[in-house]
Specification:
The chain has 312 residues and is an alpha/beta fold. The chain has helices spanning 40-53, 90-98, 107-118, 178-181, 183-195, 202-205, 215-223, 227-251, 267-280, 283-288, 300-307, and strands at 3-9, 13-20, 25-32, 61-66, 69-70, 75-78, 86-89, 101-106, 127-132, 136-142, 145-146, 255-259, 290-293. It folds into two domains: 3-107 and 298-310, Nucleotidyltransferase, domain 5 (2-Layer Sandwich), CATH 3.30.420; 120-295, 2-Layer Sandwich (Nucleotidyltransferase, domain 5), CATH 3.30.420.40. The protein contains eleven helices and 13 strands. Strand 5 and strand 6 (75-78) form a beta hairpin. The longest helix is centred in the last third of the chain and has 25 residues, at 227-251. The protein is globular, with a radius of gyration of 20 Å. The structure holds zinc ion (ZN). Zinc ion binds next to loops.
C-alpha cells in the first residue's frame, strides 16, 4: 500500500490528511491558515505543522492544492487570497523541508484529479469537473491525463466568456460564465427581482434584511415551493448548461462532475443542466455525456491533494 499526505489550502483553514492509494483517509486534521497575519512565512509554517501532524516515514509524497495560478514546476504564480502568494516555489520549499516528492496544483485541478482517481470519475477517461461556489473553478482530465497548459495550470473554466457584451466579472473581464453562476451573482440577481416587487417567501425568511440572502436560503425557499427561487435556479442552471454545451462540443467528455456547495441545490440544477446540454450541444456528443454530482464528499480537498502524488 502506498500513502501520501494531502493538503487542502484554503483562505481560512488548512485541511490535511494521510491518505492511502485507494483514497481512504487514515488520519486527518484542520488548522487555521493564518492568512490574516499578512505574512507568507507564517502560512508556510502552518502548512509544515499540518504535514508534521499526520507524518509517516513511509509516504510516497505530499500533494498540495492551492488557490491561484500554478505553473508546471509547482511555482504559484499568484493567488489573490493568500499573503504574498506570488512567484512562490511551494514545491521546492517543502521538498527541501521534508525530503519527499511534492506535487503542487491549483485547487480546482487537484479536485478533478481526485474525482478521476477516487470519486465520480472512476472508470472514465475524459472528465470535466466544476466546483460551484463563490467562484467557478474547473479542471479537465483528458484521455487519463490532467490537462495542463504550456506553462500554467490551464482550465480556468470560470473565466470563459459566454456573453462578450455581458456582465462585469471579478477578474476584470466581461461576460465570464462565473458572472452568471457564482454565489454572489446568484444572490444579486435574486435581490434585483425582489426590489422590482416580485413576491417571495425569502423576504420573510431573512426578516426583510436582503443582505442576509445566501444560495442556501434560496435553496430552502425552492424546497418550500417558492416560484421566484425556482426561477433563479432555472436561470442559473440554463446559463451553466449552455456553457457546458460548448465544453461538450470541445472535449466530448464521458462525464461532467458538479462539485461544491451550490451543486447541493439538487435535482432542479442537474435536470436543467442536462436538458440544456441536450438542447444545445451537438446531438451525438450530448447523448453520451453524463452529468453527475461529485463523489468525494466533505474531505474532497484532502483526498484530492494526496491523489496528485498517485499520478502515474
Ligand atoms: Zn472572469
Amino acid at each position: 500500500m502506498s500513502m501520501a499526505i494531502g493538503i487542502d489550502l484554503g483562505g481560512t483553514y488548512i485541511k490535511y490528511g494521510l491518505v492511502d492509494d485507494a483514497g481512504n483517509i487514515l488520519k486527518k486534521g484542520m488548522i487555521p491558515t493564518r492568512a490574516d497575519s499578512g505574512k507568507r512565512d507564517i502560512v508556510i509554517e502552518q502548512i509544515a505543522l499540518a504535514i508534521k501532524d499526520v507524518w509517516d516515514n513511509a509516504i510516497d509524497g505530499i500533494g498540495i492544492g492551492t488557490p491561484g495560478i500554478v505553473d508546471n514546476n509547482g511555482v504559484v504564480y499568484e493567488s489573490p487570497n493568500l499573503p504574498d502568494w506570488h512567484n512562490l516555489n511551494l514545491r521546492k520549499i517543502f521538498e527541501s523541508k521534508f525530503n519527499k516528492n511534492v506535487v503542487v496544483e491549483n485547487d480546482a485541478n487537484s479536485i478533478v484529479w481526485g474525482e478521476y482517481l477516487f470519486g465520480a470519475g472512476k472508470g472514465t477517461r475524459t472528465i470535466v469537473c466544476l466546483t460551484l461556489g463563490t467562484g467557478l473553478g474547473g479542471g479537465v482530465v483528458i484521455n487519463g491525463k490532467l490537462l495542463r497548459g504550456a506553462i500554467y495550470s490551464a482550465a480556468e473554466l470560470g473565466h470563459m466568456p459566454v456573453d462578450y457584451k455581458g456582465r462585469k466579472c471579478g477578474c476584470g473581464s466581461t461576460g465570464c460564465i462565473e458572472a452568471y453562476v457564482g454565489r454572489d451573482y446568484i444572490v444579486k440577481s435574486l435581490i434585483r427581482k425582489v426590489r422590482k416587487g416580485r413576491k417571495t417567501i425569502i423576504r420573510k425568511m431573512v426578516d426583510n434584511d436582503l443582505s442576509r440572502i445566501t444560495p442556501k436560503i434560496i435553496s430552502e425557499a425552492y424546497q418550500k415551493g417558492d416560484k421566484l427561487a425556482e426561477e433563479i435556479w432555472i436561470e442559473m442552471a440554463t446559463a451553466l448548461g449552455a456553457f457546458l454545451a460548448g465544453i461538450v462540443n470541445l472535449l466530448n467528455p464521458d462525464r461532467i462532475i458538479l462539485a461544491g456547495g451550490i451543486a447541493q441545490t439538487g435535482e432542479i440544477l442537474f435536470s436543467t443542466v442536462r436538458k440544456t446540454i441536450r438542447e444545445r450541444a451537438m446531438k451525438v456528443l450530448a447523448e453520451t455525456v453524463e452529468v453527475v454530482p461529485a463523489g468525494l464528499g466533505v474531505d474532497a480537498g484532502i483526498v484530492s491533494g494526496a491523489s496528485l502524488v498517485f499520478q502515474k
